[in-house]
């Protein structure tokens, strides 16, 4: 009995060691597994998320986010009965912002385009990072919101740097941080990610809080409904032609 | 027997494996549990604080590094407009900052300020960043305490020299010049003179980097004395990159030397300048690589206070232009022959803050200067003629803090070389610097509002200069007590304690070696003690202090009272702590005094008493902190007595670090203690058994004083390097009991939440001003999570008394304390699409809920936890509850009108679109097509009568029913009080318009639509449906 207890402790200690010295590949594999597996991730062709974003106390806007492989996205949100759109069809980024009287779509400026293009990357910057031209390295372990997380440094093809933090027990994203160059100046942003829910065998975060790093003003997104592999026409992402 | 052996074996296994014990154990209180309870910086930055070192990288976007005395290292990437702290996880006292030559992303930092004033902090070694401050590696030399300069070999970035001034208060061998050739992995101490003699400056010849000069300085500070200079000071030279050294003396003054500043001329190798403290302090010059020296100038601009100002810089592009730091910065344009003050001087001095410690001269543009002073950073673009103050550095060194009972309450305090100030603790949109008011000037310390007279504030200037200030006029009256006939001279500390009686509002205490009490706002003083200090003449030699350069600023005044505390439970019990180690208590209002210092276990005799805190619950209980750092004793001393000082319990555990400045007992929960030390804020929930370092939003900055607001339950921190912080509403800490720590999740109810409507500021001040952070106007809901939440919902829901859900909020998921905000509003009304957003913020928001108690639910996956939240009106509101009910009624009516108008417009639009759709399916010749098109056009006409449709990219001014109703809704919704008669009248008019439009639409359905539907049916087409609710 006594030996058994001892053996149990020793085993636990042995198991605990490799967990703290993970290689990047192991970590990414665990991350994909935690989300449902790489095969399942890659089998997703479209996603539609419906929810509400809170841009300030008492200021809420319902939104619909649609994404289609490999890099199409469309985000709609509604304020006071009017709907704004920001979209990217793989080449062109555009928006329709009717809130001050404009009725026609317009192409996105370079800085906004860069951000939309990044958001449109269907599987995110880690999956097939080499093929995408991203550099990824493991940057250690840090405490995020009071619990340990692995820190992964991603240098995007554009040169912008992203840090992705994976919960040390569950290997899911809990925080991302990044610097984006806007007119030559770094703008630092951060997002806190949580409320993971399973949909079609995949884990999706349903609560995202983001904003400028260090600022108490954060935008909250709550996702209420997720639809996977619903048909979404390519036209949905293309900038309408103004007649 | 058997059980014992198993337990022992298990214990051994635990030790080996480091695994937690297998049996359940209480959840330990850990720093990360405080994470959601964030300290918010309120600044101000309007006076900034002491800058110790600056360096910069020239370029189109000038990068500036500003090292501070106690507020860390800051980086500006825009020429000094905005700054951000880049060293917050490390020691906050910066001695040296050096950008590696030719490698602008590599920054070397030496911690521990070298300007050895009485209030100086301590460092912990050398750090380097290779990514421009993103991350830092510590490179050792931890025990050097202070570092004056780091030089990096311009040809080899792994070779560097560190000028370690070393310990100020005691002997130590960890000082001198250190050299590394492997980027700081290992260090050689290449120049060492004696345990009381450190390195004060280093310079490298620009032509021959192997030639290095070092200033070695013999110095010492004690609690009562400062000495600069001695036989061991000297100027040294190395010709082999700092490996070997020899002293040079030729041409330098005879006798003892003090602090030496060195400066080479980058544009003229071989030339080197030095200011040398001696009996006659002067500027010297050498033209032979430091071998021999010639005196140039002994102007007062050159020789002021060498211990505080020994920095000199030669313009990189002009070997004859020398900048010498001082009380006022000075410049010579003739190679040191003459000096003049930098900038224009008035009677009040320079336009920049006095006491200039460092300067950077742009090597590519000699017009551009950056200086660091006791009051922040300034930038000049015209070689010092004019200066721009950097308003984005909140690095003030507050000594003390107090609060008043206004709403929002004001915060009062004094700073190192930056007067005393007061300003608001919160404000919609942030607290700009202009809302702060300075008072008497000089160095500020204690400042208190008079609780009996809101127009009166007491403040002081160093060395016992006490003033009574009228808030309304800012006139200031000297009210310090002065010696009466037969009394000795009064001895006041640099930081003389003012204390306000908690039991007799309006009664003030003030301490010299005697304790004074005034009951008439300082008009007269009653002496209520004998000399409470040791009155040791050996500790009262401040007039001889300074060493080679006399320096009797009152900073070395000693044998004085430093801390006063009257018991809130009994006004006759008063505690007094002195800087020379006495801890006195009276239980009869000052008639008799007992010195209980000897009862403090493990405290060296004479240790400075830094604070006393009589308990709020029991007159026999008191807390005390002591601070021995000025004798080299860096231990943390925090004690409690429960028997008037007969016995004491040490409370500081190894988790509390840094010499102690203050301890506070909470006003409600006597087990909640807050301690401020040189290295930060520490919290105990169990009366001092266990402590956690509070790091949320707060770097490891010295916390000198703490105030707990008795009504609002906010904690205000006076930091010595990052100005003031507020921790909003500590009620949750009062409730964070061991039982709560065990729970998976639990609400930690806060104070009643004020219903304040935010108000904007019409100010466009650019980006260069630090604005104090305000908590915003939402209600705050606080809860505790034992672990980070990852899977499933984590939401906070709010319900009214009828059980209607008003809000569902994405909750924080962190381990420990979480806070979420609720707008105290329900959902906004539905609007029909128009040509733009109605330009009224409150039209976008839902109706304000009424004051009262609401139910809050924490939904955590499948579990739910319930509590309540209490909403109370804005304390300043003049509206009554009936007024607010009246408002809510009108808002509800307007809300209904908006939604009715939306339904009507949507219905009309639907008919329009159906008619157009049907028409499109018919042949152009079909008469029905024409009728349907006419109907569609008629509907569009109706719609445009109700909704603004002009393109709004210009300013259309178009306002229809939708916009009028929305604006009125917003206007009434944005003010928590009775609507005006105009508003209610207007509502009636708009309601009538809506009714008319509704009836007209209904009428048209019977008249126009019904016959068309008959015809559509004939063609087997679907009839037009009216979807209006």
CATH class label of the largest domain in chain B: Mainly Beta
Alpha-beta classification of chain A:
alpha+beta
* Regions with little confidence, pLDDT below 50 for 5+ residues of chain B: 1-24
Which regions of chain A are unreliable across 5 or more consecutive residues at pLDDT < 50? 1-20
Please report the distance between the alpha carbons of the first and last residues of chain A. 83 Å
Terminal Cα span of chain B: 82 Å
CATH topology of chain A: outer membrane lipoprotein receptor (LolB), chain A
Approximate strand percentage of chain B: 25-35%
- In CATH terms, the superfamily of the largest domain in chain B is YVTN repeat-like/Quinoprotein amine dehydrogenase
Helix content of chain B: 10-25%
Number of structural units classed as domains of chain B: 6
Q: In total, how many beta strands of chain A? A: 13
Mean pLDDT figure of chain A:
88
Please state the oligomeric state of the protein chains shown.
Answer: heterodimer
Taking Cα atoms only, what radius of gyration of chain A do you get, to the nearest Å?
A: 20 Å
Shape of chain A from CA axes? Answer: globular
Mean pLDDT of chain B: 94
Describe it for me?
The complex is a heterodimer of chains A (243) and B (1029). By secondary structure, chain A is of the alpha+beta class. Chain A is built from five helices and 13 strands. The relative contact order of chain B is 0.08. Chain B folds into six domains: 32 residues, no CATH class; 339 residues, Methylamine Dehydrogenase, Chain H (7 Propeller); 78 residues; 132 residues, TolB, C-terminal domain (Neuraminidase, 6 Propeller), CATH 2.120.10.30; 121 residues, Immunoglobulin-like, CATH 2.60.40; 138 residues. In chain B, 14% of the residues lie in helices and 31% in strands. Classes of the chains: A alpha+beta (243), B alpha+beta (1029). The interface between A and B is large, with 47 and 66 residues.
């Amino acid at each position: 009995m006594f030996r058994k207890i001892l053996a149990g402790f020793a085993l636990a200690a042995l198991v605990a060691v490799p967990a703290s010295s993970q290689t990047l590949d192991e970590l990414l594999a665990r991350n994909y597994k935690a989300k449902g597996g790489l095969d399942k991730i890659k089998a997703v062709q479209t996603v539609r998320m419906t929810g509400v974003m809170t841009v300030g106390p008492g200021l809420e806007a319902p939104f619909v986010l649609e994404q289609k492989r490999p890099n199409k996205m469309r985000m709609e949100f509604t304020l006071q009965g009017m709907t704004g759109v920001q979209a990217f069809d793989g080449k062109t980024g555009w928006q329709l912002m009717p809130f001050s009287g404009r009725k026609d779509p317009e192409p996105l400026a370079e800085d906004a385009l860069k951000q939309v293009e990044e958001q449109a990357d269907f599987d995110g910057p880690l999956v097939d990072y080499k093929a995408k031209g991203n550099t990824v390295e493991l940057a250690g372990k840090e405490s995020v919101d009071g619990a340990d997380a692995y820190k992964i440094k991603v240098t995007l093809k554009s040169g912008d740097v992203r840090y992705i933090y994976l919960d040390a027990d569950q290997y899911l994203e809990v925080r991302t941080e990044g610097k984006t160059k806007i007119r030559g100046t770094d703008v630092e942003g951060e997002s806190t990610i949580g409320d993971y829910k399973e949909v079609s065998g995949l884990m999706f975060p349903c609560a995202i809080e983001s904003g400028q790093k260090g600022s108490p003003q954060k935008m909250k997104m709550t996702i209420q409904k997720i639809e996977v592999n619903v048909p979404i026409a390519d036209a949905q992402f293309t900038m309408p032609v103004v007649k | 027997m058997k059980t014992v052996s198993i337990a022992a074996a298990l214990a051994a296994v635990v030790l080996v494996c480091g695994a937690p014990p297998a049996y359940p154990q209480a959840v330990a209180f850990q720093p990360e549990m405080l994470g959601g309870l964030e300290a918010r910086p309120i600044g101000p930055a309007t006076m900034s604080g002491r800058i110790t070192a600056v360096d910069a990288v020239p370029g189109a976007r000038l990068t500036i590094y500003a090292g501070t005395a106690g507020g860390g290292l800051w980086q500006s990437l825009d020429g000094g407009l905005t700054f951000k702290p880049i060293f917050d996880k490390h020691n906050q006292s910066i001695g040296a900052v050096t950008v590696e030559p030719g490698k602008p992303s590599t920054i070397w930092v030496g911690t521990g300020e070298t300007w050895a004033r009485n209030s100086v902090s301590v460092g912990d070694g050398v750090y380097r960043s290779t990514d421009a401050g993103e991350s830092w590696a510590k490179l050792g030399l931890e025990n050097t305490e202070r570092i004056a300069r780091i030089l990096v070999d311009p040809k080899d970035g792994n070779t560097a020299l560190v000028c370690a001034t070393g310990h100020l208060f005691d002997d130590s061998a960890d000082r001198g010049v250190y050299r590394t050739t492997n980027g700081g992995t290992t260090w050689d101490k290449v120049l060492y003179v004696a345990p009381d003699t450190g390195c004060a400056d280093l310079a490298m010849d620009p032509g021959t980097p192997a030639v290095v000069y070092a200033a070695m300085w013999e110095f010492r500070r004690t609690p009562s004395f400062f000495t600069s200079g001695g036989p061991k000071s000297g100027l040294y030279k190395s010709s082999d990159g700092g490996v070997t050294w020899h002293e040079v003396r030729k041409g330098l003054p005879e006798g003892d030397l003090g602090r030496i500043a060195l400066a080479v001329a980058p544009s003229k190798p071989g030339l080197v300048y030095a200011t040398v403290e001696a009996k006659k302090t002067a500027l010297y010059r050498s033209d032979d690589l430091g071998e021999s020296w010639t005196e140039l100038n002994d102007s007062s601009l050159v020789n002021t206070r060498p211990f505080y100002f020994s920095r000199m810089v030669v313009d990189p592009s002009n070997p004859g232009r020398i900048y010498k730091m001082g009380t006022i910065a000075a410049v010579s344009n003739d190679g040191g022959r003459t000096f003049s003050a930098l900038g224009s001087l008035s009677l009040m001095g320079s336009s920049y803050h006095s006491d200039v410690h460092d300067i950077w001269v742009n090597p590519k543009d000699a017009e551009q200067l950056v200086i660091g002073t006791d009051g922040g950073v300034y930038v000049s673009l015209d070689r010092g003629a004019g200066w721009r103050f950097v308003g984005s550095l909140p690095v003030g060194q507050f000594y003390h803090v107090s609060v008043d009972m206004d709403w929002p309450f004001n915060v009062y305090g004094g700073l190192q070389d930056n007067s005393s100030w007061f300003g608001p603790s919160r404000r919609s949109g942030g607290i700009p610097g202009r809302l702060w008011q300075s008072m008497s000037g000089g160095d500020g310390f204690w400042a208190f509002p008079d609780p009996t007279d809101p127009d009166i504030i007491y403040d002081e200037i160093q060395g016992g200069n006490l003033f009574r200030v009228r808030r309304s006029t800012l006139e200031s009256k000297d009210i310090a007590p002065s010696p009466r006939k037969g009394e000795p001279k009064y001895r006041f500390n640099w930081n003389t304690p003012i204390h306000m009686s908690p039991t007799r509002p309006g009664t003030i205490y003030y301490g010299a070696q005697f304790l004074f009490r005034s009951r008439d706002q300082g008009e007269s003083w009653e002496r209520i003690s004998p000399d409470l200090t040791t009155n040791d003449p050996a500790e009262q030699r401040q007039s001889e202090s300074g060493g080679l350069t006399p320096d009797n600023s009152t900073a070395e005044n000693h044998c004085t009272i430093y801390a006063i505390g009257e018991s809130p439970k009994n006004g006759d019990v008063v505690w007094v702590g002195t800087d020379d180690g006495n801890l006195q208590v009276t239980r009869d209002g000052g008639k008799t005094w007992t010195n209980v210092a000897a009862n403090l276990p493990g405290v060296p005799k004479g240790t400075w008493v830094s604070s006393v805190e009589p308990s709020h619950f029991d007159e026999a209980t008191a807390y005390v902190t002591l601070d021995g750092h000025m004798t080299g004793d860096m231990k943390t001393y925090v004690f409690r007595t429960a028997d008037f000082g007969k016995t004491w319990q040490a409370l500081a555990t190894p988790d509390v670090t840094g010499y102690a400045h203050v301890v506070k007992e909470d006003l409600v929960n006597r087990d909640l203690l807050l301690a401020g030390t040189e290295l930060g804020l520490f919290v105990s929930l169990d009366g001092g058994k266990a402590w956690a370092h509070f790091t949320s939003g707060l770097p490891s900055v010295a916390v000198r004083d703490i105030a707990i607001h008795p009504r609002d339950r906010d904690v205000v921190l006076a930091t010595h390097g990052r100005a003031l912080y507020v921790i909003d509403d500590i009620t949750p800490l009062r409730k964070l009991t061991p039982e709560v720590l065990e729970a998976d999740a639990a609400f930690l109810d806060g104070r009643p939440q004020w219903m304040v409507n935010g108000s904007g500021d019409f100010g466009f001040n650019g980006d260069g001003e630090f604005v104090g952070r305000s908590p915003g106007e939402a209600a705050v809901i606080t809860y505790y999570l034992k672990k980070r939440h990852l899977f499933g919902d984590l939401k906070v829901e709010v319900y009214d008394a009828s059980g209607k859900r008003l809000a569902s909020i994405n909750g924080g998921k962190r381990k420990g304390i979480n806070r979420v905000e609720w707008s105290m509003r329900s959902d906004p009304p539905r609007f029909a699409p128009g040509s733009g957003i109605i330009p009224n913020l409150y039209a976008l928001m839902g109706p304000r809920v009424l004051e009262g108690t609401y139910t809050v639910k924490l939904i955590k996956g499948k579990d739910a936890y319930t509590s309540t939240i209490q909403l109370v009106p804005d304390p300043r509101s003049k509206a009554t509850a009936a007024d607010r009910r009246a408002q809510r009624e009108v808002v509800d009516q307007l809300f209904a009108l908006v939604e009715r108008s939306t339904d009507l417009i949507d219905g009309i639009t639907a008919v329009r679109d159906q008619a157009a759709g049907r028409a499109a399916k018919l042949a152009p010749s079909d008469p029905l097509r024409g009728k349907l098109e006419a109907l569609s056009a008629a509907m569009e006409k109706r719609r445009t009568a109700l909704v603004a449709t002009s393109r709004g990219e210009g300013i259309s001014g178009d306002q229809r029913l939708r916009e009028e109703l929305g604006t009125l809704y917003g206007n009434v919704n944005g003010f928590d009080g009775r609507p005006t008669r105009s508003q209610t009248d207007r509502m009636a008019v708009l309601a009538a318009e809506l009714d008319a439009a509704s009836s007209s639409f209904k009428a048209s359905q019977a008249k126009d639509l019904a016959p068309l539907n008959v015809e559509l049916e004939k063609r087997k087409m679907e009839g037009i449906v009216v979807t209006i609710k």
